[in-house]
Amino acid sequence: QVQLVESGGGLVQPGGSLRLSCTASGSIFSINFGGWYRQAPGKQRELVAGITGSGVTNYADFVKGRFTISRDNARKTVYLQMNSLKPEDTAVYSCSVVSRGYQYWGQGTQVSVSS
Q: What percent of the chain has pLDDT over 90?
């Protein structure tokens, strides 16, 4: 059984920072793709950032220059460093990984940005 566990969400003020972690356990030998998605109330889920097995990263325009995605293959963990947070970043953030042709999802973690 494969399980993804997210951590690091919470409540921060505008301009603050959070670091999200997504750790995989079970039958995962390598991460071919790791990504962070978010969904706000009334909106569709959207890709925030992704990283390929070769280390190539991609970011949505609304987070460029503020967020950084990274991974630690040995620890089977994907990170999302979020800086200069804005109220519009408030959403449930979920991680997803692809390994050996299968995609797995975490339960999501709430990120709230307000004064």
A: 87
